[in-house]
Specification:
0% strand, single chain, globular, mainly alpha, 227 residues
Amino acid sequence: MRKRFLSVTNLKAWWSSHRLTLNLILFFLLLGVVISAGIHFSGLSQYFNLQTLDNFATQFQQNLTLNFLILMSLGTAIGLPRQICAFSAGYLFGSALGILLATTAAIIGCILTVMIARYGLRQILLPKFQRQVDKIHQLLQYRTFRKTLMVRFIPAGNNFVFNLCVGAARVPLKPYFLGSYLGFIPQMSIFALIGSGIKVQSNLQITVSVILALIAALIAWSLKSRS
């Protein structure tokens, strides 16, 4: 009886201390997926204009992969949302190649932003973002790889500004870039599957993307609880 009471008490304490984190992770991870899935299953996707992507594929047909990688790398470097990159990659190239291209473009864009901020814009950024830079320095100074994974699993905040502040904060770059690359994969997979699913009208791929969102949320919570 005593053990049961203690287990219930511990469970309530655990839930109380982690409730906000869990709610935020689940909310931000699932919001984009639920909206996209709702659009697809309701049939509203047929009213969205995907002609721009089709025109891009036609115009750059011979070097489509390279042109897409260059365009999206530069785009994410200056603030293009990764979700758009992943959706476009899935729509144009299918799920597997789309995930690879989108993740590669995202990490190239991340590296470009961080390096430019570190070696070209640091003195300009510090007066404007000193508070954010200090917070990021404290967050990522130690256990950089694990904490970066946690941050990347949660699609909240402004990725462009975050990368700028990381460059100005002088955090360890190798674990940051590695953690970013691996941390990008779940979210890029989700939106690439959505894009590919809309292209081929596959309900299965949309469903898989929702499952991946749940898995990413659990991983993010696990990393948060250990940090």
